[in-house]
């Protein structure tokens, strides 16, 4: 696999080695040892999630203030623009974001470590989005920052008004959001 640290170096774009021919393809979608080496971290994953969404659905920017989750995300159908926002107050990149297009064709994955808010918008007609987490879902500790917060100013690579859940439509302003120290 090829691992590229993005502008926020803790966020890593992972490109698996794909073996393909006229019959299809094969690739190793996860290997704990290779992941640890590529990211320079040691995290165990405890939960796998799968969401399906239609064009223009935006999910995020989510995080858990307790039981923070690292997420290894990928798309197996369609395409999304995926975003990680550094919400660690002590970090030199606090309040900055990075993003990457994840598609069924490029088969890239994004490592979003604990301490980051995460979100994505669907660019294709539909998208199946899979992700592993380093801690369990804890709804009492879940938080959401407004997707269109002007202080973060994410360029979602999407024209138009996204479709939001009621919860995401009530996202907190970054200035008032609970963040990590």
The count of strands amounts to: 13
CATH fold topology: Jelly Rolls
Classify the beta-strand content into a percent band: 35-45%
Biggest sheet strand line-up? 1-2-10-7-12-5
Any idea what the radius of gyration is?
Answer: 16 Å
Q: Average pLDDT, to the nearest integer? A: 97
CATH H level: which superfamily?
Answer: Jelly Rolls
- Helix percent reads under 10%
Ends apart, CA distance between termini: 33 Å
Notes on the structure:
This protein has helices spanning 32-39, 166-169; strands spanning 2-5, 12-15, 19-21, 24-26, 47-54, 58-64, 71-77, 79-86, 97-103, 109-112, 116-122, 126-133, 142-144. By secondary structure, the protein is mainly β. The chain has a single domain, classed as Jelly Rolls (Sandwich). The strands form three sheets. Strands 1-2-10-7-12-5 form a six-stranded antiparallel sheet, with no helix packed on it. Strands 9-8-11-6-13 form a five-stranded antiparallel sheet, with no helix packed on it. Strands 3-4 form a two-stranded antiparallel sheet. It is globular and about 50 Å long. The model has no long low-confidence stretch (mean pLDDT 97).
